[in-house]
Amino acid sequence: MSFSATFGTQTYHFKDLKTLLAKASPRRSADELAGIAAENEKERVAAQWALADVPLKHFLNEELVSAEIDEVSALIATQHSPEAFSLISSFTVGELREWLLLPKVSTPELVRVQEGLTPEMVAGVSKIMRNQDLIAVAQKCSVITRFRNTIGLPGTLSVRLQPNHPTDDAKGIVSSILDGLLLGAGDATIGINPASDHPQNVARLLHLIDELRLRYEIPTQSCVLAHVTTQLELMKIGAPIDLVFQSIAGTQKANESFGIRLSLLDEAYEMALSLKRGTLGQNVMYFETGQGSALSADAHQGIDAQTCEARAYAVAKKYKPLLVNSVVGFIGPEYLYDGKQIIRAGLEDHFCAKLLGLPMGCDVCYTNHAEADQNDMDTLLTLLGVAGCTYIMGVPGADDIMLNYQSTSFHDALYLREVLKLKPAPEFELWLRRMNVIDGQGRVRGDTAAHPLLDYFGNAK
Amino acid sequence: MNWNELKQFTQARIGLERCGHSVSTRSQLEFQWAHACARDAVFETWDAEATEQELGAAGMQTIRLETQVSQRTDYLRRPDLGRKLKEDSEALLQLKQPAVPHRLVFVMTDGLSPAAIRAHGAALATRLSQTLADFIRGPKPLWILAPFGRVALSDAIGEKLKAEMVCMVLGERPGLSSPNSAALYLTYRPKVGNSDALRNCISNIHPPDGLSYAEAVHKAHFLVAEAFRRKYTGVELKDESASFRADLDDLN
């Protein structure tokens, strides 16, 4: 079906829903690189205008990529609940925005329609929402998950402790972990991106975190972000895997470029559940996403970067993950050019995922060839904090020396907790108190030079 | 242990001096300086003409070409254009085709770090030309210099020259602690449309902190010899020149 919008004597035509969504997207270099972006600002707003008038029902009748050739499309169709949808089925995209912003629409109402919304509807409405709309609505969503602690409670902000090292050096990694723990980070997960995906190396890193966790009885979960096939292999031989990680994208072709199919994720999920390592809950998966990933694999099928991203959330949702995060600025300026585009994308991803019921965090980050700096990260970090972002990354000094990009630091997390009066996950907060890392006010103590955690190597064999 | 002892184990910014929730002014400015170095490394201009003269003086044959990108901001936004040669550059390359195709040709581009090529380009070219001399057909190694190139530019050039293999030297995306890092990419049977899975990469070349020239060239020699023997590069060809497994055993 084609769409149009008329202003005076000028009429803009959009040949199908996919084109309309792409042209309505706030400007970003990924869609320009793909050749599907609006040609100018007027065409963009015309597309947004036309998009606002599209009935939500239409999204159920026009596939962006056929379910016959794309298992993500097929999954989206299966996940859709007509019953939940009936509450909003009369709306257009524009009316959905207005409804979401009503004060009477709060957490229970949003949960009620969650299964009725498709990723494309959510992506669509985000395109006609201002940054403040994305923040206001996301703040009303509540998603709580559990493994060894409780993630996503109102008033909390969790941190993934990311202690990467360019050669996976054990002492180097542990030193970064200790730094993070002493700065109150690590409740979302202690998660290492391994430099080498070699199974023996990944197993070594898993044992490394597990021993540390057990010795100090830290109520958190570990993860080594190797390929899911490596983790499957390791689970079979009894390696201590808490969370199974995988990067995912919004089309089957893009997922294939990551070396995954849904059937493979099914297998990993079932096996992770069978290990029963969670003590409070069984949310055993951890996913990463990011706008532009489908395009970079030449697998976007003509769909814009942000809509592709929202479709990836359908994949995540199937496995009830403990954590999901968008690695928003990692991909580089040919996808998100500058701080403005990264900030917008971060807010979109958080909003879309939360509305779809996912425990969304964000790797607030950039590379050195993007037009961005730490000030842009401060802005996005603060906005996401207000929006109720589930967790952020904690990297020593914001400088990831293995992946060569800048994220947020342990100190950045302390800043956000301080200015917005946010706390760590409650079980982890108790541990921090017991270990004398935080004081009576919940603040990290000033002097850590003599903290017993620093004796980890001294006391080790 | 204290923080100074732990800092010996990693270059990560651990144990930073604090003020309240934040870091000391000194830590903050150290970070800003590192970021400034990385930013300037991206936006430096590579003087390809000077490099050409240097390589010529060292006995290499050179051709200087242009990609479809002429300024840095376009380079950052349009990776597709950095993979292609300008029309007149293609024509020039056509003219330079030898009667007998090359076995191995070299390409150099500034990529995302002109600073890396300024620091390491000529030194790597000299050592690669010497070490890989056995794999070259003809008296002099051929070096193609093309600013604003992406990795896949080596396919466009290699295919045009009907080269059996191409070795590209390029400036890597600058890290906060490594603004001048170079990489080598090896592609057997270069062909437009090749995926990166068909290449081998030697990354992080930036002495004294990163990989040394000698180590990089040693790895390159191993991979090039193996690639000619097996007639492929890519994920199936593992770099077994380094004692990676032995390193692993040490850690366990």
Notes on the protein architecture:
In chain A, helix 1 crosses helix 3, helix 9 runs antiparallel to helix 17 (305-317) and helix 10 (131-140) packs across helix 19 (374-387). Chain A is α/β, with parallel strands linked by helices and 461 residues long. Chain A is 46% helix and 11% strand. The mean pLDDT of chain A is 96. In chain A, the strands form 5 sheets. In chain A, strands 7-6-5-12 form a 4-stranded parallel β-sheet, covered by helices on one side. In chain A, strands 8-9-10-11 form a 4-stranded parallel β-sheet. Chain A has 2 domains: 1-54, ethanolamine ammonia-lyase heavy chain domain like (Ribosomal Protein L24e, Chain: T, Roll), CATH 2.30.170; 145-434, TIM Barrel, CATH 3.20.20.70. Chain A has 22 helices and 14 strands. Chain B is an alpha/beta fold. Chain B has one domain (42-246): Ethanolamine ammonia-lyase light chain (EutC) (Rossmann fold), CATH 3.40.50. In chain B, 40% of the residues lie in helices and 15% in strands. Chain B contains 9 helices and 8 strands. Chain B has a 6-stranded mixed β-sheet with strand order 3-5-4-6-7-8, with helices on both faces. Chain B is globular, with a radius of gyration of 20 Å.
Helix-strand blueprint:
The complex is a heterodimer of chains A (461) and B (252).
Chain A: E1 3-7, E2 10-14, H1 17-24, H2 29-34, H3 41-52, H4 56-61, H5 71-79, H6 82-85, H7 93-101, H8 107-113, H9 119-127, H10 131-140, E3 145-146, E4 150-151, E5 158-161, H11 170-182, E6 189-192, H12 199-216, E7 222-224, H13 228-236, E8 244-247, H14 252-257, H15 262-275, E9 285-289, H16 293-296, H17 305-317, E10 323-326, H18 339-355, E11 360-362, H19 374-387, E12 391-394, E13 399-400, E14 405-406, H20 410-420, H21 426-434, H22 456-459
Parallel strand pairs in A: 5-6, 5-12, 6-7, 8-9, 9-10, 10-11
Antiparallel strand pairs in A: 1-2, 3-4, 13-14
Chain B: H1 3-6, E1 18-19, E2 22-23, H2 25-43, H3 48-57, E3 61-64, H4 72-77, H5 87-95, E4 104-109, H6 114-131, E5 142-145, H7 153-160, E6 165-171, E7 182-188, E8 199-205, H8 213-230, H9 244-251
Helix pairs in contact in B: 6-8
